[in-house]
Amino acid sequence: MSAQQAQDQVVEQEQSIHPVAGCAPGTPLTKAAAPIVDLGYAQYQGTVDTSTNITTFLGIRYAAAPIDELRFRAPQPPTNITRVQQATMQPNRCFQASSGTLPTNPLRPRAIEVDTGEDCLFLSILFPRDADRVPQRLLPTIVWIHGGGYLAESSSMYRGTDLIHESNRGVVAIVIQYGLGVFGFLPGQEVKKNGTLNAGLLDQDFALRWVNKYIFKFGGDPSKVTIWGESAGTGSVLQQVVANDGQRKPQLFREAITSSTFLPSQYKYNNRIPELLYSEVVDQTNCTAAADSVACLRTADVNALENANLNINAAGFFGTWVFIPVVDDEFIKQRPMLSLAQGKVNGEALLSVTNTFEGNDFVNQSTADTANAPRYALDLFPNFGPTEADCVGALYGGLSTHHFKLTLSKANQFLYVPHTTCSAPLAVTPGRANSPSHWEHITDVPYYFPSYEVDNGITFAIFNNTAFVNAFAQLFTSFAISLDPNVKIDPTTITPEWNKWDVRQVEMLFNIKLRAMIPL
Predict the structure, then answer these.
(1) DSSP H helical segments within 401-449, as ranges?
(2) Which residues are catalytic?
(3) Burial track 322-353 (b if 16+ CB lie within 10 A, e otherwise)
(4) Mind telling me which InterPro entries this protein's record contains (predicted)?
């Protein structure tokens, strides 16, 4: 939907936001007088926080439950519901799992506990309230795609109020959920033939199409949508950027933001590795003897599938994830880095940021040494042969064990981004010359989402430097609003000029001299 089409429907929009009975038009809404939005297939009633004037809709169903015959298929529209749905509770999380044998998994499920299940295709929307209705002018919209290695996390971990505050009430915020693990990324030839590959990516695509159709009802501009994610959320963003060879119609977003990109080896759906994964799922669900193994998996007990999901992921190599996107020859026609290099992309602009020690938590520090480099490469890339392994040994053999570990932790050249990417952290006043930088994977997330929580309600510590925090966070919302991070929301912030990427300057550095994650 174009911005003009959305503006033409403002009258319809206002008619679909109803004050609760007993409240005269113009009466300020309270939590008891929340708006009701009519989506055609269902009506949803949200809540208003009168202390912040932010309206929240939690758990809006954007697709039918992917159960029974819809398991391992492309998402379908929701069924009609006649009664008003209360959008006041966090939705079910999609089934979760953990990565390989990491002793501490940075992408494990977090503190905000909600039920898990297959019926999890929901999104949550927050927008700043104008008087008693949605914003009178359509606002740019940010769609956050959560990370978690394609097997964990949920929308409940991220509060869109943070983005609204950082944008000075200038955006609508959406957080989506999508199928994870075996439920969203079951690979293999049989799935290609009798189901749908990359169902989790298609869930994301379906959610973006929902946004394109309905976001005007919540005050969002469908022509100014930004997709943003971290880790596997960023991997998802890049999959959407290259989807359909960059020829997606209609275009579903204008900008893309990538934070801490997770882009592991992406095999073709019928490669040896995906086929082995599929066979393992079939074996663990007692579907080996079935004439149609996909049909058997559709009727398998969900607990058996979830157990297989947990077992197969946990048995993976240290710090790796096994159920990930594949090249399916339809939605994803080739590895994303090839499409990016060829300019086969959706959207108009990309903002990218990485941390210095992205790979620190994903490298087994007790076994990573130069003598083991060839073997390590074979474990990470099981399709490698002796020639490739020897090449790795030659590349890293001259490093001391300390520098080998440091190289893996900083650049994570083996696993986390095995394809070359261009990082673009921001430059600000450097600190002392003897202070090494030490931002790790995920440590930037609390700057976008200060309310972000980890296990047991513990939050990440952020810099005790308001000027730094404001400058950093507002870069991203500025980009979402104006296509340019240099157009400041707050003209007093210390943000320096962030130039467009150039082959002569492949990155800018934010706090290049840093110790203990404290800006100096």
Answers:
(1) 401-411, 445-448
(2) 231
(3) bbbbbbbeebbbebbbebbeeebbbbeebbbb
(4) AB_hydrolase_fold, CarbesteraseB, Carboxylesterase_B_AS, Carboxylesterase_B_CS, Type-B_Carboxylest/Lipase
